[in-house]
Amino acid sequence: MQKRFISIWFRYLKTDWWIRRRPMLHDKPFVLASPDHGRMVITAANRLAEKQGIDINMVVADARALIPSLEVLDDQPETSARLLNALAEWCIRYTPAVAIDPIDGLLLDATGCAHLWGGERSYITAIHKRFKDFGYDISIALADTVGTAWAVARFGSNDSIIESGQQHTALLSLPPACLRIEASATERLEKLGLRQISQLISMPRSALRRRFDAQMLQRLDQALGYEEEMIKPVQPIEPYQERLPCLEPIVTATGIEIALQRLLEALCNRLQHEQKGLRTALFKGYRMDGKIEQIEIGTNRPSCNPKHLFKLFEVKIESIEPAPGIEVFTLEALKVEDLPTVQQQLWGNKMDLDNVELSELLDRIAGKIGAYNIHRYMPAHHYWPERSFKEASSLNEAIQTTWKVDRPRPLQLLSRPERIEVTAPIPDYPPMLFRYKDKLHKVMKADGPERIEAEWWLQDGQHRDYYSVEDEDGHRYWLFRSGHYDAAKSYQWFIHGFFA
Amino acid sequence: MDTTKANIIAQLKKDILPLQGFKSTLNTVALDAIPVAMKNAFPNAAFPLGAVHELIADSTEDATATFGFIAAILASIMQNAGASIWINGSQSVFPPALKSFGLSPDKIIFIYLKKENEILWAMEEALKCKGLSAVIGEVQDLSFTASRRLQLAIEQSQATGFIVRRNPRRLNTSACLARWKITSSPGQLPGDMPGVGFPRWNVELLKVRNGKPGSWPIEFVGGRLRHVPAFTVIHQQQQKKTG
């Protein structure tokens, strides 16, 4: 079968996308710019700006001189690749093989597709119309070869269809730039007065090869169809989703469990094949009356172990109300990560935080009682006791600083210091007596004071003078006086912790 | 002649233990941190690891002493590796202080739960897990059935369980291997130096299966538990001025 290719050229790819995002830009001249050698250089301009004489690679200051009201937006370099990828995936509705043609085009292998739209004319009209509805200004061409389609889309008339075998005539009147050759080669051709393919095509090939490089001849051959050219189609990622329709509506918990097990096995099989593991999964049941019942789980580390995942779901199955019955089940992995390859140990179980069983245990506990109850702590760079440790973000976060052991710290700390009554000699001796929870403690031994200042950049408040004291029963406490002994200002004694 | 007799008696004592239903656990980490006097109370003179220890604490001060004792033992079990789970009723343990007992606080996962049955469920699940060195739980009451469940869970994983009973209403029988009570006692520095000194506890082993209960004054010095010689007279001393 004769191959047919479509080339789509987006004249204003990035600016059209901006207009789609911000419709008020539609009637204004605007440009996208990015910094280059300390200046802002225009990378894209919309139709209105271009009409008024603004070109790509112009400096923004010059452009502002032309149009004072010109709007300048920041250009992200990766936008066009991301955008083309999304558009290519969308174009899969027209043909299974869609390739990206950097930096502003798409290539579609339309071989054997056009008759589904009732002929080539209506096929490209359909494509053109859809893109126009989106707001993209495109030029489209259909030809036997990638090269001709590309050339005609950019340099020929709009929406042209080059009949099979007519590449030669179609190319004759086009400039040499349509051959997808380097800019330096185009310039040289220009200097030699070769402004049309027709002048070039009649020249002996050996002369062309001598004057220019082999690339130009290859491009010419590809455009004319003497040499085959391949395109590299995009492959969209299939969502990690499994589906299980049921012959009869499921109403029992056992039935749901069986469905879940089947789905998990299928999904985990695929994940294992691709060396991936899921972090969150959503199990949905579509009820006969149109309602959707769903349960969700999350794991601490990527997992593709169906047994473990089933256990996580198991505790939540009871929350599903099948009512008239569930007809379709789906299981979707919402978040998928690469599975770190685990080296199996033959004997001895390494007991550490990266143990798989431990993370599975924590998943189970989190599933039942909530992940907010599970904590792991890291040292923090603060002297203030309440701030001297912080929550770790994950199970395998490594500690950045060391735990301080130079000063005595109580094993139990009250979440809020509690006020106590004391008898203490001034100015900076530890108390002799203190009363806590209606019990009088006689201080036998004491260490201190250790002064800890309030961190003024975080909070206001007075410093604390900490004493570790021991009473006559051998119980040890951590007391502090907040502030100086000062008649003018108030000071208070508090108990803050218990030593072992 | 006497030595051979003593050897025979020691061997016979060892043979009696399995007949009494004592199973030696697979976990045989030499716990250097534990004083010999305390070790001798246990069968085979080894601190039992794959078992549940029950610790009684009647007040906050005693609970702190109990935590200190657990932390000291845990440090030698974990040996700078491994992980543990600590299930509390409230957020009272101050993680940075654990480091002074030789325990890395970042290797411990704290779980805060309010309901006692949830704590027991979480403990049971944790004890079944083969990836943990120890599990510590805090409850008030522990029924015999609950303690049996914990002991059964432990038999798969050989982890060590510590269950701290704070202000227990009733000291009922339990299937735990040992019952401890740790209370603080006044510390003492050599030469009557001023200051609070090292943590010192009176460690009572109230019950132990196949062993001899006892009571020892124990001090935590230089990263290990030390048996304080009995002849040290602890006398009251006047408050010393510091600073």
Q: What structural class should be given to the helix and strand makeup of chain A?
A: alpha+beta
Strands side by side in the biggest sheet of chain B: 3-2-4-5-1-6-7-8-9
- Share of β-strand residues of chain A: 25-35%
Shape of chain A: elongated
Question: What is the total tally of β strands of chain A?
Answer: 21
- Count of helical segments of chain B? 6
Major sheet attributes of chain A = 7 strands, antiparallel
* Total beta-strand segments of chain B: 9
User: Which strand order spans the largest sheet of chain A, edge to edge or round the barrel?
Assistant: 15-21-20-19-18-17-16
Multimerization state: heterodimer
Low-confidence sequence ranges of chain A: none
The average pLDDT score of chain A comes to 86
The Cα radius of gyration of chain B reads 19 Å
Largest interface, with Cβ-Cβ < 8 Å? A-B, 63 and 65 residues
Q: How would you state the average pLDDT of chain B, rounded?
A: 83
Describe the protein in words.
The complex is a heterodimer of chains A (500) and B (243). Chain A is α+β, with helices and mostly antiparallel strands. Helices cover 29% and strands 30% of the residues of chain A. Chain A has helices at residues 13-21, 47-51, 60-66, 79-90, 120-134, 146-155, 167-172, 183-191, 197-201, 205-211, 214-224, 253-273, 306-317, 356-369; strands at 5-10, 30-36, 39-45, 71-74, 98-101, 105-109, 138-143, 160-161, 241-250, 276-287, 292-303, 326-338, 374-379, 389-391, 412-419, 421-423, 433-436, 439-452, 464-471, 476-482, 492-499. In chain A, helix 6 (146-155) crosses helix 11 (214-224) and helix 13 packs parallel to helix 14 (356-369). The termini of chain A are far apart. The mean pLDDT of chain A is 86. Chain B has 243 residues and is α/β, with parallel strands linked by helices. Helix content of chain B is 30%, strand content 23%. Chain B is built from six helices and nine strands, in the order ααβαβαβαβαβββββ. Chain B has a nine-stranded mixed β-sheet with strand order 3-2-4-5-1-6-7-8-9, sandwiched between helices. In chain B, strand 8 and strand 9 (224-227) form a beta hairpin. The longest helix of chain B has 19 residues, at 60-78. The radius of gyration of chain B is 19 Å and the shape is globular. The relative contact order of chain B is 0.18. Residues 232-243 of chain B have low confidence and may be disordered. Strand 13 (374-379) of chain A pairs antiparallel with strand 3 (108-112) of chain B.
